[in-house]
Amino acid sequence: MKKNIFITLLFSSIFCLAQSKINKEQSIRVSYNLEYSPDSIHLNKKEYDLFYLTILKDRSIFNSETEYLKDSILNSRNPNNLFILNKSLFKNTIVKKNNKIINYINYNVYRFILNENLDLKWDLTKETKDILGYKCKSAKTKFKGRDYIAFYTDEIPISEGPYKFNGLPGLILEIYDSNRNYEFKAVTITKLTNDFDYKIFNQSNYKEVDYTEIKKLEAKIKDKPSILIMNDKIKLSEEAYDKYDRSYKEKNKYRNTPIELE
């Protein structure tokens, strides 16, 4: 089903991108396909995820299709629809505003806000290509232990891009690291009405933390993954938690090529 939706999006993009002008004041939504290799042993084994970059006048919001639809469902007050969503490894919602990044990290019962400063240094290069009918120029940068190559178009003069990437003189339509472990590529661009507003989930149960605390939690999850499903409302037996730990560790034992290496 998800594959069919993706194909529909891909072909509909040819129609909706009939090269109508997009200025820097225009609110738009860009969908990106991510092709990635999370498995360090089988690097040729690719996985895929779909993401949305919603660009408004005062901020941008980047999240997976699953997280985006989750927000929409919660705002519609019909939470039963949450059970039909596809799973995504990417639980973050990344908000970029005034050159700051607000990273909302959702580990089920653990929910954090991590404020980040990001000042990417770009080297503009000479390679060009066409993406979705837009002429794109290339640039290189280093980020969190990886070397990246980006293709951006100044025909859309919005200094934005997928994930935490921005700072180029145009919209990033494609970006990948030098090993091609992570590759984002735009598949649709949709204009939004000027009064469109993105309602982010209830943030009252999110705790503001620093990077050190995030790393400590990730170490705890690696040691005992079942802490992700422990809460006061649902009690399981120790045997059930142990079974979850074994299953989680077996499934993820080779997943050690995260997008951020540092």
From TrEMBL:
Protein's UniProt keywords contain Signal: yes
Range of residues in the leader sequence: 1-18
Pfam families: PNGase_F-II_N
Keywords, in A-Z order: Signal
Name of the featured protein: GLPGLI family protein
Organism: Algoriella xinjiangensis
